Amino acid sequence: LNQLTFEAFLWLPKNIANDLGNTLSNKENSKNAREIISDLRTHLLGEQNSIKSSQVIVFTQESRKKQAEKLSNINSEAKE
Q1: By the 8 A CB rule, do 53 and 71 touch?
Q2: How would DSSP label each residue in 28-79?
Q3: Sequence-distant (≥ 6) Cβ neighbours of residue 12 within 8 angstroms
Q4: Are 33 and 23 in contact, with CB atoms under 8 Å apart?
Q5: What is the pLDDT averaged over residues 61-74?
Q6: Where residue 64 falls among pLDDT bands split at 50, 70, 90?
Q7: Are the C-beta atoms of residues 44 and 36 closer than 8 Å to each other?
Q8: pLDDT tens for residues 38-54?
Q9: Which residues contact 78 (CB under 8 A, 6 or more apart)?
Q10: Beta-carbon count within 10 A of 72 CB
């Protein structure tokens, strides 16, 4: 994790790096991951390619568990 955050802070523009730092340190009223990804996409691709933060999909632990269960069921059915 340190390597990833160090690399991010080396390359991100100041405003996005500050937002990321606030989020990673759990500061009150900090942006969530979706908002940071949306801001970064706009920075990289320009305003014409911006997306709403609500369009960024983040898989939670629960959703990963459900997907793993579905795959397990599919694999079990395929073996039968």
Answers
A1: no
A2: TTPPPHHHHHHHHHHHHH-GGG---GGGS----HHHHHHHHHHHHHHHHHHH
A3: 20, 40
A4: yes
A5: 80
A6: confident
A7: no
A8: 999 999 999 998 889 99
A9: none
A10: 10
pLDDT, the chain, mean: 89
Token duo for residue 27:
């500061």
Q: Which tens digits make up the pLDDT trace of 50-63? A: 889 999 988 888 87
- Residue 46, token pair as written in the block: 């320009």
Q: Which residue has the tokens 């305003």?
A: 47
**What residue type is 18 in one-letter code?**
N
**In the structure encoding, which two tokens stand for residue 63, read together?**
């959703």
Give the span between the Cα atoms of 12 and 39, in whole angstroms.
Answer: 11
pLDDT, tens digit (0-9, with 9 covering 90-100), for 1-23: 899 999 999 999 999 999 999 99
Rounded distance between C-alpha atoms, residue 40 and residue 23, angstroms: 14
Report how far residue 68's alpha carbon sits from residue 63's, in angstroms, rounded to the nearest whole number. Answer: 9
CA distance 33 to 53: 9
